[in-house]
Amino acid sequence: MNARRRDRAELRRPGREAIVGSIRELAAGIDARAVVLVEGASDRVALETLAARRGRDLDADGVRVVAMGGATNIGHFLDRLGPAGRGLPLAGLYDEAEEGFFRRGLERCGLGAGLSRADMAALGFHVCVADLEDELIRAVGVDGVRDVLAAEGELRSFDLFQRQPAQRGRAVEAQLRRFLGTRSGRKSAYARLLVAALEPDRVPRSLDAALACV
Questions:
Q1: Which residues does 193 contact at the CB level (< 8 Å), separation at least 6?
Q2: Of residues 27 and 68, which shows the higher confidence score?
């Protein structure tokens, strides 16, 4: 499946029936030796950017990073790509708040029972605490993130955002995390920019581990 068709399949979300149909189409068309399942586009961008920084060509390696359109779809993808489906080696990346969806999905497809977070990591599924943006902000640091915003011409917008009543009194890290989600496409754009800005020894463990699995 080419990139354009893949994107259409991953982004069609008008209803449950269409979601399942898109998943079936996507799973049937994946040409890969291994798959990393992630919640959304920003997670995929982060992993692909990190791989490129390290000189790794995921396509050449036969690895696909698949954005599922949300954690609630994990079961469908595991059914079609996991042990009872295509039998592909799988890894994953998920937000802390969505851990239950991933745990239940892994257990339902026969990959364990009563799985702990450590058990899930051993299966290749790694948690972002609290989410990808939180991990990247901590890793890059507040000053580093502000430098990236400045380079993109968005520092003034962020400074204005901080003055909004709802943001007053919040930690800068929390303000940054919220700011990254205030406009469509911003999370994905800054996933790429912040991963590119990481010092080599500051890569979040979750991203590092998910790539190492495949």
A1: 148, 151, 152
A2: 68
